[in-house]
UniProtKB/TrEMBL annotation:
Organism: Nonomuraea cavernae
Lineage, opening ranks: Bacteria, Bacillati, Actinomycetota, Actinomycetes, Streptosporangiales
The protein's name: 1-acyl-sn-glycerol-3-phosphate acyltransferase
Record GO terms (molecular function): 1-acylglycerol-3-phosphate O-acyltransferase activity
Domain Phospholipid/glycerol acyltransferase, residue spans: 43-161
PANTHER family: 1-ACYL-SN-GLYCEROL-3-PHOSPHATE ACYLTRANSFERASE, POSSIBLE ACYLTRANSFERASE
GO cellular component term, pick one: plasma membrane
SMART domains found in the cross-reference section: PlsC (SM00563)
Signal peptide bounds: none
GO BP term, pick one: phosphatidic acid biosynthetic process
Record key words, sorted: Acyltransferase, Transferase
Transferase in keyword set: yes
C-alpha cells in the first residue's frame, strides 16, 4: 500500500489558507539561504527549538521553499478530539515519549524518507533551557535516523519566535511586530561516521556535529559568538 507523502489537497489548502496569512500578519521576515533546502528527495530538516510558535513559522518557511514538512509531534495530540484527526491528516508522525514505542516514530520517519519526504526534526526534543537560548545538547534520534537512512541533514536556525510567544506563555506578544529570522546551512558532513557501528558514542558524536551546524547558523543570525560548550540539562 502506498503511503501519502503530503496531505490531501483539502487539508493542504486548509493549512496554507490559515497559516500563511496569519504568519504574514504576525511577523516580519528575514529568511536566508532558502535555496539550500533540497527541493526533491528524502531530507532531514534539523532545527533549534525556542517557542511553541516556531513549528508553524518554520513550516511556512519550508513550504515557501518547496517542501511540505513532515513533523514529529507528541502522540497525545492525536488523542485530542478534532485536533487528532487534523494532525493525522497533515501527515504528522506521532511520538510516544518515554516509552518503548518511541522507536516506532523513527521507523516511520525512515519510511517517509524513502518515499521522498522532508522530515522536520528538533534534535533537542524540547524548547531549549539554555539561559541564553542557544541550542542544547541534542538527543541522538536525528543522528540515528540520518546514519540509518543515508538522508542528508540540513541545519536550520531561527530567531524571533521566542519574542512572539516566549516558552511557557499562552498569549502571544503581538506588538510591536516581531521579525522571524531563519538561516539554512549546507548539509551536515557526517561522512566520518558512515560505516561505523551505531554505538552510543558514535551517535553522540554525530549528534554533536548536527547541533554544532545549527548553532553556527544561529550565531550568524544573532551576530554573536555561541558558547563553546552547549548547555546540557541532564548535567544541571
Amino acid at each position: 500500500m502506498s503511503r501519502p507523502t503530503r496531505p490531501s489537497r483539502f487539508w493542504e489548502t486548509l493549512a496554507v489558507v490559515i497559516v500563511k496569512p496569519l504568519s504574514k500578519l504576525l511577523i516580519k521576515r528575514d529568511w536566508r539561504h532558502g535555496e539550500r533546502v533540497p527541493r526533491t528527495g528524502g531530507v532531514i530538516i534539523a532545527a533549534n527549538h525556542l517557542s511553541w510558535s516556531d513549528p508553524i513559522l518554520l513550516s511556512h518557511f519550508l513550504y515557501n521553499n518547496g517542501r511540505w514538512p513532515v513533523i514529529l509531534a507528541k502522540a497525545a495530540l492525536f488523542r485530542v478530539p478534532l485536533l487528532g484527526h487534523a494532525v493525522r491528516s497533515l501527515c504528522v508522525i506521532p511520538v510516544e515519549r518515554g516509552s518503548n514505542e518511541a522507536a516506532k516514530s523513527l521507523h516511520t520517519a525512515e519510511e517517509r524518507l524513502r518515499d521522498g519526504c522532508a522530515i522536520f526534526f528538533y534534535p533537542e526534543g524540547t524548547c531549549t533551557r539554555d539561559p541564553g537560548l542557544w541550542p542544547m545538547v541534542g538527543k541522538t534520534g536525528v543522528a540515528r535516523l540520518a546514519l540509518q537512512s543515508g538522508a542528508p541533514v540540513i541545519p536550520v536556525a531561527h530567531w524571533g519566535a521566542q519574542e512572539l510567544l516566549p516558552y511557557g506563555e499562552k498569549r502571544p506578544r503581538l506588538f510591536p511586530r516581531k521579525t522571524f529570522r531563519v538561516s539554512v546551512g549546507p548539509p551536515v558532513d557526517l561522512s566520518r561516521h558512515i560505516g561505523r557501528p551505531p554505538h552510543a558514542e558514535v551517535l553522540r558524536e554525530a549528534t554533536a556535529d548536527i547541533m554544532a551546524a545549527i548553532t553556527a547558523q544561529l550565531a550568524e543570525l544573532r551576530g554573536e559568538k555561541a558558547p563553546e560548550t552547549p548547555y546540557d540539562p541532564a548535567g544541571r
